[in-house]
Each structure stands twice: as C-alpha cells, then as structure tokens.
Amino acid sequence: MAKGIRDTDYLGISARIRAMENSLLTRDRMEQLLEARTEEDAAKLLTECGYPPLDPRHPEEMDASLSQVRQETFRDLADSAPDPRYIDFFRLKYDYHNVKALLKGAALGTDPNHMLTELGRIPSLDLAEAVSREDWDSLPGKLGVAAAEAKEVLDTTRDPQLADIVLDRWCYADLAETAEETRSPFLAGYVRVQVDAANLRALVRTLRMGKNADFLKGVLLDGGEVDPDGILAVSAAHGGGLAELYAPTALARAAESGAEAAKGGAVTEFEKLCDDAVSAYLDQARFVPFGDAPLVGYLAARETEYANLRILLLGRAAGLSADVIRSRLRSGAV
Q1: pTM of the model
Q2: Which residue, of 22, 103, 151, 269, has the greatest Cβ tally within 10 A?
C-alpha cells in the first residue's frame, strides 16, 4: 500500500465495488448466454447486464463497443480510487501493445491504426507521434526505454518476434515496479503469478518448437516464484521434471497439462489452466472486506469477463456447440 494510504481509505470504493460486482456475468448468466435460442435473446441478457448492443457478425464494431465499456470502467474507478496507480497498472499493458503495433507498422510500411487501442494511459495519436519522432523521454515509466530498445532490436534483426520479447519483458518489469510503488502485497503477488504463467507458457512453447535452453533463456521473465534456472534445467532435460517443478505452485494443474502439450498434445486446455491459475489467485479478493484487493480483483474480473464474452459471442456466431465454447471460457476472477 502506498505511503500515507491505508486500507480504511478504500472503504468507500470497496463498498461500490461490491455493488458493481452484482452486474458481473456470473456462471449462471454465462450459461444463459450459451443456451440462448436466438441472438435477440442473447442481446437482451447482455443489455440487462449493462452492455451496449454487441453484434459478433461485425467483430471490429463489437471490439470497439467492448473497448468503450472498458474505458468507462477505468474512468469511473479512477475518480474514486485512493491511488490512481492501480488503474494505471491495468492500462499500461495496452501502451506496450500499441508500441508493438507502431514499430511493426513502421518496419513493414503498413498502417497500424486498426491494431491500436485507446485503453492505455497514452492516447494512441500521442504515442504514435512520440514513436515516430523517437521522443522516448516523453513516455512514462519504463515505456520509453522499452520502446527504444525494441526499435533497436527490430532495426538490427528485422525480427518482430524479438522486438515483442523485449517489450514483454519491460512490460512485466513496469507492472512489478508499479506494484512495488503502491506497496501492495496483493498486487505484487498478482504480478508474480502472471510471470510464472508466462514463463510456463514459454517453456512449453519452446519444447514444442524443439528450441534449446539458450533460446528459452532469452524469453524468460524475472520476478516469478519459480526459479528461472529450474525452468532452464527442465528445458535442457527436454521437458523432464516439468510437472514436479511446478507442483508446489498455483500452476500445478497447468504444468501437468503443459507436460502433455509439450509432447505434442493439445494446448487449448493448457492455456486455459494457466489463465485459471491467475484467476484463482485473484479469487482471494472475495474474502477481503475492504482495501486494495477488492479493487484489483474487480478490475481483473472485468478483464476476464470481456475476454470470455468475446469468446462466447464469436463462438455462437461461428456455430460452435455450447460444450466447445464452454471449454474455452476462463474462470472468473471474483
């Protein structure tokens, strides 16, 4: 918790969040959406939960509407959060996403505008101007250093994937620094479990690709509970000991699934279990009456809800069965 801010300073916003949680798409509501006979019935259910009309037949328009709902949530809570850095924590990843799009667009000579989002801390036009002028000092936090390094890597290697790796590493470092600045153990724990999930995904992906431990070393993130040296040892052993390495952690089930995926099995369930492990950590916020944890838990729950809603609506539009869609939905955070 940031110096001078106490748990009791969150009494008001915690009470608001408990009320706002009533509009979250619960499992029962998700089931109703899955089983809705017509798109009109599904739209009515969403309207009752405060969503605007969402038409999966036009994905770009649907994504724009979901982005607008996200923006409104950020603005609403920013006005009442004792520490605005909690809102920035959830917005900064979109700045890194935009930098990726802008650098790739410049390198490939393509227009990145359709890939940009306004969910970050910086308006996309301002960010585009800063990247174009290489005005790195005008960007907040670690973003300027990250963008400069990623551009240098991209200019040198012409490999967008390597530039993305640089930006991902800086993004997680930025998240960790923001959590440290707030002095929030709950937020810091959220970063650690995300890092562990990202590193587990990288390990499984590397094994599936047949890459060696040296390649993985350049991808792994710092700041998780699982020692990177242990992850590299599993890689060198061609996946041996993977499940055992993660057995004491929140990612135990995901690692068991990952061990099978690393051998060529399906990755859908593995990816879902990684996300569910992060959600399980956030689920602890339900048992905290007030403080920063309910705020973090609610914002993360909304992020999960938006992702699930997109999966569900696009799945329905594609004619997928309810069982298939259900298997792809992530666990809610609150």
Answers
A1: 0.85
A2: 103
